[in-house]
C-alpha cells in the first residue's frame, strides 16, 4: 500500500514504512535484533556517527526504527519526520531507503560488531521490561492469557533465543523479509507521490491471516508475582467475540469507554473517587483480538476488593444499570478524541494505518457517525458478551 | 494587547495584561479544530510555606476540581471538553481542551479554579488516592533517580528536593483550613497566567478573561527563592530498586545566574548534544564499548532560582560513563568546538522545536512552563536563533565542571 494524507496544515511531513510478518514464537527474536542493527549502520552510513549526522543534517528530522506488535503481526516500522522546507523530506525518504534496502553487509552476514552489540542491546531491553511495573504487568497478563496464541508471543523477543542467532542467519532472514513480507508506506503532509514511491517492492508477498478471536467462557485464571513493590499492579483481561470491524467493534469501544475510558468512567468514579482505593484505574480495548483489559495501581491487600468491584460493574452494565449521563459521557469522550485527532499528524497517520491493517474502510468521519449512532443497548450487548479470562497481580 | 510574530515558527502571539496583573498569552492556530486553555499559578512544591505540610500545593490541585454541584469532570464532558491539571516544583496548572463550546468550557475552567470547596469529608477521602499516587512514584526508577539528583545538587532540604505529592505522613496532616489558607495566599492574579492555543479570535479571548477572571492581586509582592549558586552538596547518591541495570543521571549545577535564562537553556541543551548527543564521537565509543545501549536523554532544567544540565541513561557502569564524559568535556575545552557540528546541532534543536509546534498541547504546556521562568515561546526560540559558537565556548568552561551523579542500582 502507498498512501498519502495530503495536507498543508502542519509544519512538517512524516512517513512510515512497514515491513510486516506474522508474529511467531519461532522468529520473534529476529526482528528486534535486525532493527537494532539497521538503526546503527548501513552500507552508505557505515558507522553510528555517519548515520546520525546524516539525520541531523536534515534540520532536526526525527528518525526511528522499531519493532511493533499490531494484532498478531510483528512489524518493522521505519518512521521519518522533518520540516517540509528545503527538500528535507524528499532527502529523508532517500535516507530511509538506504537504511532499509542497503544494510551494512560483510561476507554473508551483517557486520559482526553491530550484530553483537545488537544482541546485547536486545538482551538488556528484554531484561529491562521489569523497570516499568505497569507495562510489565500488562505484558505478563497478555502472555499468560494468550498462551499458545500468536498474540501472546512477545514481539520484543526472547532471552533464550538470543544465543542461537547468527549474523548470516539474520541477514538471510532479512533478505527473505525484503523479498516476501508485505511492505506499506503511508505519509502525511505536503508530500508528492514521487517523494515516497522510491522503495523497492517485494518480489512476491506472503499472505498474513487476520488475528484469531478465541472465545471460550471459563472460570478465570489468577497469577501473582511478588516484587516487593510499594504499590501493587492489578490487570484483568476480559475476552469478547465482537467483530473487530463494524458495529460490533464500535459497541465494544463504547463499553470500554463507559467502564474505564476516563475520569467520567464508572470504574474511575467508583474505585477512585468514591472508595479512594487507587490513583489510576482504566481500561483499554485490544481491537484485533477483541480483548478489554483493566489496569489499576492499588495496594495488594485491596486486589480482591477491586477485582470484585470490576466484575460487579461489568455485570451492572450488562443489566443496563447505568445512567443516561454515563452513557452520554462515554460517547462524547470518544467523539471528542476522534475529532481532535485531526490536529495531530501522528494520530492521523496511525489511524489510517490501523484501519488499513484491520481492513476497515471507515474514515474518522465515518467512525464519528458510527459512535454517535450507538444507543445504550449497544453497550449492554457488548457487556453481556465479555467474560473474565485471566487476572494478573504484581505485588 | 500586544502582537508578536516569529518568522522561524510562523506563529503569532498576543499578549495582554489584565487590570489585576494576570498575564494572558494567545496563540491562534488557524485551521485547527481543537482548542486548549490553561490557567497556571506560580506556586509549586518548591514554593510551599513552612507552616504547611509537604505536598499541599499538589493536594490543592487535586481538590480544586471539587464542587458543591455535580462533578466538574462530568460538566466538562457534557460540554464536549476534557479537563486535567498538574503540579510541578514551580507551578500548578489547570487546563481544558475541547472542540465545541469553547467559551462555556473556558468559563467553567475559571469557575473551577476560582471556587474552592473543601469539606472535612472530601479532604479525608482524597488522602487514600494521593497515598496511592505517592506509592506509584516510589516504585518508579526514573522518578527516584531524578529526585536523588536534585538532593545531590541542592541538598536534602533544597527547594527541588521536596516530594511534589508529599509523604504518606505529611498528607495525613492536611486539613481543609490549611487548603483554604494556602489557596488564598497563593492563588493571586499577579502570579497567574492564562494561555489559549487554537483557532480563536484574540479579542474575544481577552474579553472573556476580563469577564471570567475574578481573583485579586496579592497585597504584597511574594518573596521568591534566591538563586542557589553554591557548589553541589553531594557528588554521588546511590539507591536500589527492582531494576535490571543501573539507571543514572549526571548533573552540572548552575553557578552563573547573571547569564539570561534563555541563553543558559540554549547553551545547556546544545552543549550536551555536542558532548554526548547521538552524532558525537563519545556516543559512538560508549555504544561500541558496550557502556550504553541507546541515546542519552539530555536537558537543561531551570527556573529563576535553580538550573542544571542533566544527562541520563542506563549502563552497567555509570561511573565509567561519567569519567568518559568528563574527559570528553576536557578534550572539547582544549580543542575547541567544531563549528560545523555546532551549527548542525543548533539547527537540529531549532528544527525539533518547530516540529513540536504542530501540537497545540505542546505549545500550551511549554508556554506555561516558560511563563513561570518569565519567558515566552518566542524568547525560547530566539535564544536558539541568536546562539553563537562563542556563547557555547564560554559556557562550556563556566558550567561543565563538578558533576553530581545519581544512580539507581538493581537490588
Please provide a written account of the structure:
The complex is a heterodimer of chains A (395) and B (411). With 395 residues, chain A is of the alpha+beta class. Chain A folds into two domains: 2-196, Cytochrome Bc1 Complex, Chain A, domain 1 (2-Layer Sandwich); 221-394, Metalloenzyme, LuxS/M16 peptidase-like (Cytochrome Bc1 Complex, Chain A, domain 1, 2-Layer Sandwich). Chain A is 44% helix and 22% strand. In chain A, strand 3 (62-70) and strand 4 form a beta hairpin. In chain A, helix 12 (324-340) packs antiparallel against helix 14 (364-372). The longest helix of chain A has 17 residues, at 324-340. The relative contact order of chain A is 0.15. Chain B has 411 residues and is an alpha+beta fold. Chain B folds into two domains: 2-212, Metalloenzyme, LuxS/M16 peptidase-like (Cytochrome Bc1 Complex, Chain A, domain 1); 236-410, Cytochrome Bc1 Complex, Chain A, domain 1 (2-Layer Sandwich), CATH 3.30.830. Chain B has 15 helices and twelve strands. In chain B, the strands form two sheets. Chain B has a seven-stranded mixed sheet with strand order 1-2-3-7-4-6-5, with helices on both faces. In chain B, strands 8-12-9-11-10 form a five-stranded mixed sheet, with helices on both faces. In chain B, a hairpin with a 4-residue loop joins strand 10 (297-302) and strand 11 (307-314). In chain B, helix 1 (56-63) crosses helix 7, helix 9 packs across helix 12 and helix 9 crosses helix 15 (389-399). The longest helix of chain B has 19 residues, at 120-138. The termini of chain B are far apart. The mean pLDDT of chain B is 95. At the A-B interface, helix 2, strand 4, helix 4, helix 10 and strand 10 of A face helix 2, helix 4, helix 10 and helix 12 of B.
Amino acid at each position: 500500500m502507498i498512501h498519502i494524507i495530503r495536507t498543508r496544515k502542519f509544519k512538517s511531513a512524516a512517513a512510515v514504512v512497514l515491513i510486516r510478518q506474522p508474529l511467531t514464537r519461532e522468529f520473534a527474536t529476529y526482528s528486534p535484533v535486525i532493527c537494532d542493527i539497521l538503526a546503527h549502520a548501513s552500507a552508505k552510513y557505515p558507522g553510528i556517527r555517519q548515520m546520525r549526522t546524516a539525520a541531523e543534517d536534515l534540520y532536526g528530522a526525527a528518525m526511528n526504527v522499531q519493532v511493533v506488535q499490531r494484532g498478531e503481526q510483528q512489524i518493522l516500522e521505519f518512521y521519518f519526520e522533518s520540516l517540509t522546507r528545503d527538500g528535507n523530506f524528499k532527502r529523508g525518504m532517500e535516507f530511509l531507503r538506504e537504511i532499509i534496502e542497503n544494510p551494512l553487509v560483510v561476507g554473508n552476514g551483517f557486520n559482526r560488531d553491530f550484530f553483537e552489540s545488537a544482541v546485547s542491546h536486545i538482551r538488556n531491553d528484554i531484561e529491562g521490561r521489569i523497570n516499568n511495573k505497569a507495562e510489565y504487568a500488562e505484558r505478563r497478563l497478555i502472555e499468560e492469557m494468550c498462551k499458545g496464541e500468536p498474540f501472546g508471543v512477545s514481539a520484543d523477543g526472547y532471552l533464550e533465543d538470543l544465543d542461537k542467532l547468527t549474523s548470516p542467519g539474520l541477514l538471510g532472514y532479512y533478505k527473505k523479509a525484503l523479498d516476501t513480507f508485505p511492505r506499506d508506506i503511508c505519509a502525511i503532509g505536503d508530500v508528492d507521490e514521487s517523494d515516497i514511491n522510491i522503495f523497492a517492492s517485494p518480489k512476491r508477498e506472503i499472505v498474513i491471516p487476520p488475528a484469531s478471536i478465541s472465545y471460550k467462557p471459563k472460570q478465570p485464571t489468577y497469577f501473582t508475582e511478588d516484587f516487593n513493590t510499594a504499590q501493587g499492579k492489578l490487570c484483568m483481561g476480559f475476552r469478547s467475540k465482537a467483530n473487530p470491524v463494524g458495529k460490533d467493534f464500535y459497541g465494544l469501544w463504547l463499553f470500554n469507554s463507559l467502564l474505564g475510558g476516563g475520569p467520567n468512567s464508572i470504574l474511575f468514579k467508583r474505585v477512585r473517587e468514591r472508595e479512594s482505593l487507587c490513583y489510576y484505574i482504566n481500561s483499554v480495548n485490544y481491537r484485533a483480538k477483541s480483548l478489554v483489559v483493566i489496569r489499576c495501581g492499588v495496594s495488594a491487600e485491596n486486589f480482591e476488593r477491586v477485582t470484585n468491584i470490576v466484575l460487579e460493574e461489568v455485570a451492572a452494565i450488562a443489566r443496563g444499570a447505568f445512567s443516561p449521563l454515563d452513557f452520554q459521557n462515554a460517547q462524547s469522550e470518544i467523539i471528542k478524541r476522534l475529532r481532535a485527532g485531526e490536529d495531530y499528524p501522528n494520530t492521523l497517520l496511525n489511524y489510517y494505518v490501523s484501519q488499513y491493517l484491520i481492513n476497515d474502510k471507515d474514515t474518522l468521519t465515518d467512525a464519528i457517525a458510527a459512535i454517535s449512532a450507538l444507543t445504550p443497548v449497544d453497550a449492554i450487548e457488548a457487556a453481556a458478551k465479555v467474560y473474565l479470562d485471566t487476572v494478573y497481580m504484581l505485588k | 494587547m500586544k502582537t508578536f510574530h516569529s518568522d522561524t515558527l510562523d506563529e503569532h502571539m498576543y499578549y495582554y495584561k489584565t487590570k489585576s496583573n494576570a498575564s494572558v498569552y494567545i496563540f491562534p492556530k488557524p485551521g485547527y479544530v481543537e482548542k486548549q486553555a490553561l490557567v497556571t499559578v506560580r506556586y509549586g512544591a518548591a514554593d510551599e510555606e513552612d507552616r504547611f505540610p509537604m505536598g499541599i500545593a499538589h493536594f490543592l490541585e487535586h481538590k480544586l476540581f471539587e464542587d458543591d454541584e455535580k462533578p466538574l469532570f462530568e460538566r466538562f464532558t457534557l460540554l464536549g471538553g476534557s479537563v486535567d491539571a498538574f503540579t510541578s516544583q514551580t507551578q500548578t496548572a489547570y487546563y481544558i481542551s475541547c472542540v465545541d463550546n469553547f467559551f462555556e468550557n473556558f468559563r467553567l475552567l475559571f469557575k473551577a479554579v476560582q471556587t474552592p470547596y473543601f469539606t472535612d469529608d472530601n479532604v479525608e477521602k482524597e488522602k487514600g488516592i494521593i497515598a496511592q499516587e505517592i506509592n506509584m512514584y516510589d516504585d518508579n526508577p526514573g522518578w527516584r533517580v531524578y529526585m536523588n539528583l536534585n538532593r545531590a545538587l541542592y541538598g536534602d532540604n533544597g527547594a527541588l528536593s521536596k516530594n511534589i505529592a508529599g509523604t504518606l505522613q505529611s498528607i495525613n496532616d492536611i486539613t481543609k483550613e490549611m487548603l483554604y489558607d494556602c489557596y488564598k495566599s497563593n492563588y493571586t492574579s499577579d502570579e497567574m497566567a492564562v494561555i489559549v492555543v487554537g483557532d480563536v479570535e484574540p479579542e474575544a479571548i481577552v474579553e472573556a478573561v476580563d469577564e471570567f477572571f475574578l481573583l485579586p492581586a496579592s497585597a504584597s509582592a511574594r518573596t521568591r527563592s534566591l538563586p542557589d549558586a553554591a557548589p553541589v552538596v553531594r557528588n554521588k547518591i546511590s539507591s536500589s530498586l527492582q531494576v535490571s541495570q543501573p539507571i543514572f543521571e549526571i548533573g552540572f549545577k548552575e553557578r552563573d545566574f547573571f547569564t539570561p535564562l534563555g541563553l543558559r537553556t540554549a547553551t545547556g541543551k546544545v552543549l550536551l548534544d555536542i558532548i554526548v548527543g547521538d552524532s558525537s564521537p563519545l556516543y559512538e565509543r560508549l555504544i561500541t564499548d558496550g557502556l550504553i545501549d541507546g541515546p542519552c536523554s539530555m536537558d537543561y532544567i531551570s527556573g529563576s532560582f535553580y538550573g542544571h544540565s542533566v544527562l541520563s541513561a542506563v549502563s552497567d557502569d555509570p561511573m565509567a560513563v561519567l569519567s568518559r564524559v568528563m574527559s570528553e568535556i576536557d578534550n572539547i575545552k582544549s580543542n575547541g568546538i567544531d563549528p560545523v557540528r555546532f551549527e548542525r546541532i543548533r539547527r537540529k534543536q531549532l528544527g525539533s522545536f518547530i516540529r513540536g509546534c504542530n501540537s497545540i498541547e505542546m505549545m500550551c504546556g511549554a508556554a506555561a512552563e516558560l511563563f513561570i521562568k518569565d519567558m515566552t515561546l518566542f524568547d525560547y526560540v530566539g535564544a536558539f536563533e541568536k546562539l553563537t559558537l562563542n556563547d557555547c565556548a564560554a559556557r562550556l568552561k563556566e558550567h561543565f565542571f563538578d558533576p553530581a551523579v545519581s544512580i539507581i542500582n538493581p537490588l
